[in-house]
Specification:
Elements lengths: L1 H29 L15 H20 L3 H4 L3 H22 L8 H34 L1
Helix pairs in contact: 1-2, 2-4
């Protein structure tokens, strides 16, 4: 229970931080000085900022908790597919709600998600594999 609480809090804080800075970055690219909390069709309001921050925190906490899948499922393939799905579905929901995603951009969004997920997965996989090889070398 303690691990779940810790992951939720850290994930929520990271999600809020990343969401805020991404919104600032993309607002700067897409506008001439206006700030959009999330919705690209509205000007800044405190209500929108709080709603966006809560969504970012919930999404961050959810993504952080999703790593627990690897603790309970022994098959790496099954755990990876389940983990990707558990992250992807809420992300699509938030993206749809925030109007980052439309029916015309869904395929591109899904492809970008898959490429980013696979890049991160293989990076972590090879990092852990390298650590295990170094540990085995020390033991022998």
């Amino acid at each position: 229970m303690r691990k779940v609480l810790k992951l939720s809090i850290i994930g929520g804080l990271v999600g809020t931080f990343v969401g805020l800075w991404l919104s600032i970055f993309f607002s700067g690219l897409a506008t001439t000085g206006s700030f959009y909390a999330s919705l690209p069709t509205s000007d800044f309001t405190w209500k929108m900022m709080v709603t966006s921050s809560l969504l970012w925190a919930l999404l961050g906490a959810w993504m952080s908790l999703a790593q627990l899948i690897f603790d309970y499922i022994n098959s790496l393939l099954v755990a990876t597919i389940l983990h990707a799905s558990v992250i992807y579905l809420p992300l699509v929901g938030v993206a749809w709600h925030e109007h980052w995603l439309s029916s015309t951009s869904f395929l591109a969004f899904s492809l970008i998600f898959t490429l980013i997920y696979l890049f991160i997965w293989f990076s972590v996989y090879y990092h852990i594999k390298h650590q295990l090889q170094a540990l085995n070398k020390k033991l022998h």
